[in-house]
């Protein structure tokens, strides 16, 4: 068992509206809420409960928000100016899983992706 919890953000309609409005490609089709919530990044965080998560989000909401925005569009000019915790809470819901079990014997490694 890892000394981390798993945090998943689920998009709400305002996030989907931004994705569709910010899309610079004139030929892209409109995405739906169901489509954008099919796959998520899982964040490993050091929290034990919802109170800890609230404190963690107060400190890390901007970097978390930016990571999600960057997953859609790397051009920061397309990002909303307001990346406050309040905005993140309007755009996303949070799913916290406090028990994370590593089923492998090999050590965890931080692997950087090559672009």
The count of strands amounts to 3
- Shape from CA axes? globular
Q: What's the tally of helices?
A: 4
Radius of gyration: 16 Å
Helix proportion range = 25-40%
Amino- and carboxy-terminal Cα gap: 32 Å
Along the chain, the helix and strand elements come as EHHEHHE
Unreliable stretches (pLDDT < 50, length at least 5) are: none
How would you state the average pLDDT, rounded? 90
Spatial strand order of the main sheet: 2-1-3
Q: What fraction strand? A: 5-15%
Look at the helices and sheets and give the structural class. alpha+beta
**Major sheet size, sense and barrel closure:** 3 strands, antiparallel
Description:
The chain has 115 residues and is α+β, with helices and mostly antiparallel strands. It contains four helices and three strands. The longest helix has 23 residues, at 50-72. The chain is globular. The termini are far apart. The mean pLDDT is 90.
In short:
This protein has helices spanning 13-22, 33-36, 50-72, 85-91, and strands at 5-11, 42-45, 92-97. It is of the alpha+beta class. It is globular.
Spell out the blueprint of helices and strands.
Layout: E1 5-11, H1 13-22, H2 33-36, E2 42-45, H3 50-72, H4 85-91, E3 92-97
Antiparallel strand pairs: 1-2, 1-3
List its traits.
115 residues, 3-stranded antiparallel sheet, 3 strands, 38% helix
């Amino acid at each position: 068992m890892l000394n981390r919890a798993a945090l998943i953000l689920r998009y709400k309609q305002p996030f989907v509206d931004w994705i569709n409005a910010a899309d610079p490609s004139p030929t892209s089709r409109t995405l739906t809420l169901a489509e954008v919530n099919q796959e998520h990044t899982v964040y490993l965080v050091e929290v034990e409960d919802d109170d800890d998560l609230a404190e963690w989000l107060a400190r890390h909401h901007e970097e978390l928000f930016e990571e999600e925005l960057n997953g859609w569009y790397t051009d920061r000019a397309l990002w909303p100016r307001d990346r406050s915790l309040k905005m993140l809470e309007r755009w996303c819901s949070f799913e916290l899983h406090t028990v994370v079990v590593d089923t492998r014997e090999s050590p965890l490694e931080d692997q950087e992706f090559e672009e």
